[in-house]
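ZP: hey, is the 4'-deoxy-4'-aminopyridoxal-5'-phosphate complex queued? I don't see it on the tracker
AM: it wasn't, my bad. submitting now with these inputs:
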Amino acid sequence: MSQFSPENIRADFPILEHIIYLDSAATSLSPRQVIEAQSDAEYHYRANVGRGIHRLGRMATHKFEESRETIKKFFGGENGILAFTRNTTEGLNIIANGLDWKKTDRVIVPLQEHHSNLLPWFRLAESKRIAGVDIVDKTDGFVKPEDIEALITKDTRMVAVGHASNVFGTIAPVKEIAEICREHEILFSIDGAQTAPHLPINLKEIGCDYFSFSGHKMLGPMGIGGLWIKEGSPLPTPEYAGGGMVSTVTGQKFTTVGNAQQYEAGTPNVIGAIGLAEAVRYLSKLGMENVAAHSENLANRMVKSLSEISGVNVTTPSNGRAHLTGAVSFTVDGVHPHEVAYFLDEAAAIMVRSGEHCCQPLMKKIAKSGGGTVRASAYCYNTEDDIDMLAATVEEIAGMVK
Ligand code: PMP
């Protein structure tokens, strides 16, 4: 596909004939090509990987490992290993649970993070494996390198940042943060759940130690994601032991394979990995620069048109002050976010997310009336018409309570 055209893209997502899907920050749709790659694998080479010698096993192993390489390359991560996980949450937990912490260690995280990038660190502190978590207590959607640097002490061992906020859609300056971490010899983990679908990502250039992402948000299947670890960065001890991750077993002792497979004990999601690699090929054909520009254009259109509606409060920063991934949060005076979401669906078949977005610490501060926010999130298959229909229907809802 040489030209980026949402109209052409939409043909690969038949459900879009019936609905306006603006909930991709939660879970994206999956194109025909991804679904077909999975069913092709199911029909023709369903087998376990790295174990059997017969032809189906060899074919499945080849496709699985080829998928790993395709995905690694997509993220510019040739200088590291890529372990398949179920999702971003698993990646972050592998890091938090598996690193060799000292009791005096501290971790820095922004308050606006998703629970998946808060609770694993909170639990470390609660169980006294580390001394504590230091929180960048800002609620404007911006993660500023200087705010992180201000919290660094001699005990800081890790900075863990979401590459983009799933509430605001704002993008964090991870390259600058990585530089600060390098200067202070601190580990840097990125939660890439919200940027892997939207931005061209080059892990080598960013220079982080760990990057976690989910397939289901980037046109891929559910139940498959990845954890990338830079070559030379500390390898977490795998949480699970068993088949596939072991090198030798002698008596009651074992050694693990030193590579990505050590995090994939048991039978992995082979079909999911193949589907995710197809999603990555699909996105590469669209061109991630095009995807990023399109998502941001639609997000800016949403911010602008929703801000003009009386009774609507847009929580995503406006006026081009921020680069956005496609997600925009807002509230409507006098209407609970769930009611807004329900009405959008019933009245215009528009799917959005409502609630606390797995960000309770942030929501307690920015959504004081309770109930969180409404979040509409656009992706490569949305059009400006989708956004205009959203704005028109939100205007109707806001008008009803006057
Ligand atoms: N981090 C962020 C920023 C997210 O948006 C999400 C999903 N909403 C997650 C982590 C968790 O992703 P998953 O449920 O796929 O593990």
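AM: back. The radius of gyration is 22 Å.
ZP: great, adding it to the tracker
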